[in-house]
TrEMBL record:
Superkingdom to which the source organism belongs: Bacteria
Molecular function, one GO term: DNA-binding transcription factor activity
Parts of the chain that traverse the membrane: none
Domain HTH marR-type: 54-188
GO biological process: response to stress
Alphabetical list of InterPro entries matching this protein: HTH_MarR-typ, MarR/SlyA-like, WH-like_DNA-bd_sf, WH_DNA-bd_sf
Species of origin: Haliscomenobacter hydrossis (strain ATCC 27775 / DSM 1100 / LMG 10767 / O)
Protein name, as recorded: Regulatory protein MarR
One Pfam entry name: HTH_27
Amino acid sequence: MNKTVQIVNEWGAFEAAHPHAEIEEFCRYYLTAQRAKLELGENFSGKGTPPTAASYLMKLIGYIARLFELYITRAMSDVPEIKQAEDFYFLNNISHSGECRKTEVAHQQLLGVSTGIDTLNRLLAHGLIEERTDPSDKRARLVSVTEKGIKILHECYRRAAVVNDLIFTNLSEDDLKLCIQLLRGVEAKHAALALEVRELPILEMYEKVLGHKPDSCKGQ
């Protein structure tokens, strides 16, 4: 089939299913569909290929996350006010959230309250954030970023950008945007559910999120 005819047919089918979609969305869809047809590589770091695409993807995500933690920790090591990578994450969270409750920050970072409070106390001790009593609830404390905190945060952004370039140096801007498009829905879904189900056993967590038992448990 002529390549032009083939792409027009693909667009026609996509437009029929998604009448309000833009051409850019079709292009991302088409690229994703073509890439999905590719076979997985023969090995992953010389240790064998995971058995499914999902397990392969999770192994990649997990390993890249560990690499990021290694690099970001090193990048922040000589910023005196930032003792751990979590300090940067918390400071960034508060900066984007505006004034917010301490417990909210800990929950957004998927940490227990006590662990989150320890991190917030470090930021307070270094003058990166400030706190006050919540006027609507005297038992709660509100935190916000100080001018010093904003200055340190900008330095952290500069260092984090170096880490991002280090990790993703071989990916084009379009590839990065495609990854974001594919994964942002996963993040959004689980960000809303994680705190609700975090204490459940994994099978109950699965059923709560997906509405049914895993296939391997059906009939039990």
